[in-house]
Write a structure and sequence with these properties.
This protein is of the alpha+beta class. The chain is built from 7 helices and 11 strands.
Length: 248
Amino acid sequence: MSYETDFVDVYLKLESQLRKEITNSYKTDNYEVLSYDDIDENYEYEMIECFGEDILNSFNESKIDYYRNSNKEQIVTFDIQTYFKNILLSYKYKRRNIKRQFELDFPRNTIYVNDTKMEKKDFKKYLRKYKGKIVSKYKSRDYTLDIILTMLCNQSSYGFPYFIMHQIYGDLDKSILVASLSTNRCIKFKIKNNDVLKISVCADFGLRNLSTNSNIKIIKTKVIIEINLNNGDLNMLNKYGFLKWQIK
């Protein structure tokens, strides 16, 4: 199927594109321990690592072993503009493709604004307030906040956490696959302190044993992005977002 008519097999397509986009080199010193005061839940975190633009290739064998053997909730940071760029690439940077996919994907997602579940017409009305606010620029094209928020409500937003979980937990030699699940798939928008829009993209993935055709464990993931609404064009995004996950 054409990308411009239906965004199918999002995880495989996104994975293929990201592998072409990002170098395979890994630097062992390409992370740092961070502290962050605004994590929602009061969990105990073992570490917070910052990989910037190289997050998709920053999991060497020792880190994979570390995450596989830990049951605590984990957090890594990622470069938000790189996250947006790779999703936009999957739409060939065309706004109409984003809007078309939104119409297809809305019934598959649950969207909340300030804890209120949204119907499509109400959410479209909510998005109008963000027209004209430019948050990103790629291929000499401006992308306003309403377009970016629309994009984040599509299935393509789940490709990034899926790819990371697949890198860490997938093990085809042992017939272990990370599989997409329909449970807990939602996007939440919430205003903080009257001027910060917090976006949470939540999804569960199943750690599946292909030999027995059964789920072994569930991986609960959340992508967190914050946007400073009072800042000027192209300055609203925080540099880094957060990817949180816990295996249960």
